[in-house]
Amino acid sequence: MTTTVDVVRGTENQNVAIITLKNPPVNALALSLLRSFRENVQSAQDDDAIDAIVLRGENGIFSGGFDIAHLGKTTRGEKTENVSDFNEILTRLVENGKKPCVAAISNLALGGGLEVSMACAARVATRGAKLGLPELKLGVIPGFGGTQRLPRLVGLEKSLEMMLQSKEITSEEGARLGLVDEVVEDDGKSGNDRAVVEAAVRVAKRIANGEKQRQFSLTRTDKLPRDAKQTMGIMAVAEGKAKKIKAVLPHASYCVEAVKVGLEKGSAEGLRKESEMFQKAVKSPAAKGLVHFFFASRATASVPGITDQKLRPSEVKSVGVVGGGLMGSGIATACLLSGMEVVLKEIKPEFLQAGIQRIEANIGSMVKKGKMKPEKAKAIVGRVRGTLDDRDFANVDMVIEAVIENLDLKRKIFSTLESIVKPSCILSTNTSTISIAKCASEMRNPERLIGAHFFSPAHVMQLFEIIRVDQTPPQILVDTLAFSKKIKKTPVVVGNCTGFCVNRVFFPYTMSATVLVDLGCDPYAIDRVISMFGMPMGPFRLADLVGMEVGVHVGKNFIEDFPERVYESPLIPSLLDAKRLGEKTKSGFYSYDDRRKASPDMDAIAPFIENARKNRKVPLPGHPEQLGFSAQDIVEMIFFPVVNEACRVLDEGVAVKAADVDVASVLGMGFPPFRGGILHWADQMGAKKIYARLTEFGKKYGGLYEPCAYLTNCAHQGKTIAEGPNRARL
Ligand SMILES: C[C@H](O)CC(=O)SCCNC(=O)CCNC(=O)[C@H](O)C(C)(C)COP(=O)(O)OP(=O)(O)OC[C@H]1O[C@@H](n2cnc3c(N)ncnc32)[C@H](O)[C@@H]1OP(=O)(O)O
């Protein structure tokens, strides 16, 4: 983690020092790198033989920004070095130093990386390079001058959009906006950034010679609004947007505040405000949660005992998908978009045609949104081949079965396929409920079958649950992990059990919500509280989205397999009986208009609620209307049993590590990323508190709430849940 200096000697007054940021893989600005950067820039500025400075990153990447591991330490309250004086270095040595600095940006300049480049007099970038200030995604704000320089380089409105939405732009757009001075065709992806560095050296020499005017970002005003009225209008919109970004996430407002001070009092004052706000943001629970989530989501692909065997993954180039329904066509779309050949199998020509049409619609919608050119879409769709014959899977590298949840059907499919596909072919099922071992029970080599659980819509949702059994060969796991990387999904490897990780951990979510309704709570109030907590929607709106049939069907598995810890309210089954199926019938807990807008409909659901309260299957104490639940009670009643089940999943070795459950909860169920994931959040609450509350709820409301052995141990021994049980069963 350092910087190095090379000097390109030229003719008279043409010596350029090239300073390279070195911290693979993305040249993150670690403390040691910042120190070395300061020394090298200072000595180049002091060296009379040097006329200009070019900054570049090693291995074809400029920089992925400030070191997030360091941010993590600060968010956890560990003693760390304050880096705000780096701002002063950028202003004094890079922006205002005697010699002009030019940034040679290959492939990406994000966060602190872009901020370093913005202190330069000019930026040259490779075509397609990604530029952005995504700090808000980490719960912080730009802290190396970004809130002051970006508005002055691209304009106030655009800069606020880029910062508040963590929106990256390409170097081409950067050139249109004035952020990039020159775009260079470069083979930067292979780590060779010669062309961009040469171009940056040329620009640096021209600035040093006075042929090109030197720009000072902090004092520029040409891109800022012309008058106070226009400024106020743009800032008012930004302030409104920042406030809308949940109350628990104040950093958007901090960012707007820093920009505002810079506009009103000048950039020096703005930089001071930025530092103050950065320090405030980095200490917030949201930053802690988001930084945890950043690393957790990158660590899921390492599976102890498997990926450390250093097996070489085989590349999946072709995939066979069994079933062209919603899931099958979504899976096929995801594979096609990642460059694979797809064979789609159906049992009837009309089903096959419908499946292909779904794939065309998925890809066509990207064209409609302007995300893809029609010619490219045509070429992608051209890679899918429909068939009614299993034998067409003979040469594919992987088969993903996505038919209805019928065990006999799945058993038959795999026993047939086993004798058709090549020995190296990965055989997988997309079941979300049925045991993998049961699906494989008629195979000659049942250990060949793994679970490949996509979430709907499969071509959009990020999470990919890989389900293994005790005997799954490591090579199959390694190959499937490589496949997940190829389709750009986040894999979570889990063991075989009812509901696997996501569905199992979250089964108490809706069950607890029905307990609360049966106790007298208003379902719409519950949904509001849970949305305020940060979930994309509350449990009843989710029930409508999923549909009552699916809800009841999936719920049955848990009722059968975990009878001691379920709550069976008649509420959802009675809506199913009355054909209030949810969004698809435009009536469920809510009513829906033609644009799928949900409106509460208490008149319609009151009889169902009344019936559920009368017929609840578990005796509940007290008079419902007198129980009076606060928002905090609702959150705890709903999420503490979810934490409890997540603890079981961890204890049983279904999940390898707590951080995997965090990632699964965020990407699979929409648990708010700023809370870091279900178990990270639980540890912030403390195992002791959760244990105590669950014990209290358990006494009143039964087994759904009784704390499991692992949570009990954590509470009694003062351990965090994330520490894990220290034994991997699978
Ligand atoms: C003061 C400043 O204003 C504050 C800041 O700069 S905060 C940082 C702002 N920067 C960011 O948010 C960018 C974060 N990084 C990313 O978005 C992506 O990693 C990326 C686009 C740079 C690369 O993506 P991709 O190629 O898919 O690789 P990805 O797996 O994400 O990252 C590769 C490795 O680099 C690490 N990494 C990426 N950016 C990092 C950073 N800024 N600091 C530390 N490590 C980083 C990842 O943890 C990963 O490590 P691993 O191999 O040990 O798991």
From TrEMBL:
Keywords: Fatty acid metabolism, Isomerase, Lipid metabolism, Lyase, Multifunctional enzyme, NAD, Oxidoreductase, Peroxisome. Pathway: Lipid metabolism; fatty acid beta-oxidation. It comes from the Eukaryota. One of its GO terms (molecular function) is enoyl-CoA hydratase activity. Residues 319-496 form the 3-hydroxyacyl-CoA dehydrogenase NAD binding domain. It is found in: Peroxisome. SUPFAM superfamilies: 6-phosphogluconate dehydrogenase C-terminal domain-like (SSF48179), ClpP/crotonase (SSF52096), NAD(P)-binding Rossmann-fold domains (SSF51735). Its main location: other. It catalyses: a (3Z)-enoyl-CoA = a 4-saturated (2E)-enoyl-CoA; a (3E)-enoyl-CoA = a 4-saturated (2E)-enoyl-CoA; a 4-saturated-(3S)-3-hydroxyacyl-CoA = a (3E)-enoyl-CoA + H2O; a (3S)-3-hydroxyacyl-CoA = a (2E)-enoyl-CoA + H2O. GO terms for biological process: fatty acid beta-oxidation. Residues 499-592, 634-718 form the 3-hydroxyacyl-CoA dehydrogenase C-terminal domain. The keyword GTP-binding does not apply. Coiled coil: none annotated. InterPro entries: 3-OHacyl-CoA_DH_NAD-bd, 3HC_DH_C, 6-PGluconate_DH-like_C_sf, ClpP/crotonase-like_dom_sf, Enoyl-CoA_hydra/iso, NAD(P)-bd_dom_sf. One of its GO terms (cellular component) is peroxisome. Monomer. This is Uncharacterized protein. It comes from Bathycoccus prasinos. The lineage of its organism: Eukaryota, Viridiplantae, Chlorophyta, Mamiellophyceae, Mamiellales.
